[in-house]
Design a protein that fits this description.
The protein is an alpha/beta fold. It folds into 2 domains: 69 residues, N-terminal domain of TfIIb; 181 residues, Rossmann fold, CATH 3.40.50.150. 33% of the residues lie in helices and 24% in strands. The strands form 3 sheets. Strands 8-7-6-9-10-13-12 form a 7-stranded mixed sheet, with helices on both faces. Strands 2-3-4-11 form a 4-stranded antiparallel sheet, with no helix packed on it. Strands 1-5 form a two-stranded antiparallel ribbon. The termini are far apart. It binds zinc ion. Zinc ion binds next to loops.
Length: 309
């Protein structure tokens, strides 16, 4: 049974593209849960010829993705251990950016995971709401952190129209097959002067360009859309949203840790990968290359409805 299907550009639906390179998933164990072969599928990164968005092709079929996120928990949730709040630096960065625009009101986080970020907003007197498909993560947020989280996906009727001052999507948009459909819903729930904060990987970052096909971001099959400042602005414009500000940020904690990961990745892992690739090519070996660690390769985009009516 073929579980994958060819897709058009997720941002503009164009079928004009050029192929950048093949990628290899590292997270085969997760696909095993769905009884899907992740090793032999030939996934490549396509560059859209119209909006210049990059995306994985082919992609897992939509119903399999929905089943995966709803029933089986994301690969980021280690269900056997109690969760640790290990994104404190990232969360504080988001909170400080939001404070530049808003200080109180109704805030919704889509894909809120365990709810650690929402809990921090709650302490600062925001009215918080979360949506999270993972049963494991949303249960923790509800029971342990006592948060208002809906398990599942955002749908029409979840909240009153024009309800939110802030909507956050942190490390979410790269997982979506049809981002335009979600933005249709989001717009329905935004107050006219609301802001949307989106954090995602930046395929145009220097680090991603140096890493090429070994960029750590490509290791997860959950990542199917690879945004750049240009393609995210295109997506926002198509949805009558304006790109207000863009921040170039690292993904994991502070400067020293990231610097170490960059140095280690670019010397040790890159050299090893180059040797392995050469051996594979010339001597028909089958050495597995390693994805490089993630460093300064994310963007945080702040967006607003473009017509303030
Ligand atoms: Zn496109």
């Amino acid at each position: 049974m073929n579980n994958y299907e060819a897709v058009n550009c997720p941002v503009c639906n164009s079928n004009k593209y050029s192929i950048k390179f093949p990628i290899q998933y590292e997270s085969d164990g997760v696909l095993d849960k769905l009884k899907i072969d992740g090793k032999n599928v030939k996934v490549k990164v396509y560059l859209c010829g119209k909006c210049f968005h990059s995306y994985a092709n082919p992609q897992l079929k939509g119903d399999l993705i929905t089943e995966y996120y709803s029933k089986l928990d994301s690969e980021y949730y280690k269900t056997e251990n109690p969760p640790i709040d290990d994104m404190i630096t990232e969360d504080n960065r988001i909170i400080n950016i939001i404070k530049k625009y808003k200080n109180s009101g109704n805030i919704l986080e889509l894909g809120c995971g365990y709810g650690f970020l929402l809990k921090k907003f709650e302490r600062e007197s925001w009215n918080i709401y979360g949506i999270e498909p993972s049963k494991h993560a949303s249960e923790f947020g509800k029971k342990e952190l006592l948060l208002n989280i809906k398990q599942g996906f955002l749908t029409l009727g979840d909240f009153p129209p024009q309800f939110f001052d802030v909507i956050i999507m942190s490390d979410v948009i790269e997982h979506l097959r049809k981002p335009n459909e979600l933005f249709e819903l989001i717009k329905h729930y935004l107050k006219p002067d609301a802001i949307i904060l989106i954090k995602t990987g930046n395929i145009d970052s220097l680090y991603a360009k140096i890493c090429g096909r070994w960029w750590g971001y490509f290791g997860s099959w959950e990542h199917i859309s690879f945004f750049s400042p240009r393609s995210i602005e295109y997506l926002l414009k198509e949805n009558n949203l304006k790109l207000n500000d863009i921040y170039f940020v690292p993904h994991f904690s502070g400067f020293i840790k990231n610097l170490k990961s960059v140095v280690y990745s670019l010397t040790v892992i890159l050299v090893k990968n180059l040797i392995k690739s050469a051996l594979n090519k010339f001597f028909q070996k089958n050495y597995k290359t390693r994805q490089l660690l993630i460093a300064y390769d994310h963007i945080i985009v702040v967006s607003r409805p473009s017509d303030l009516t």
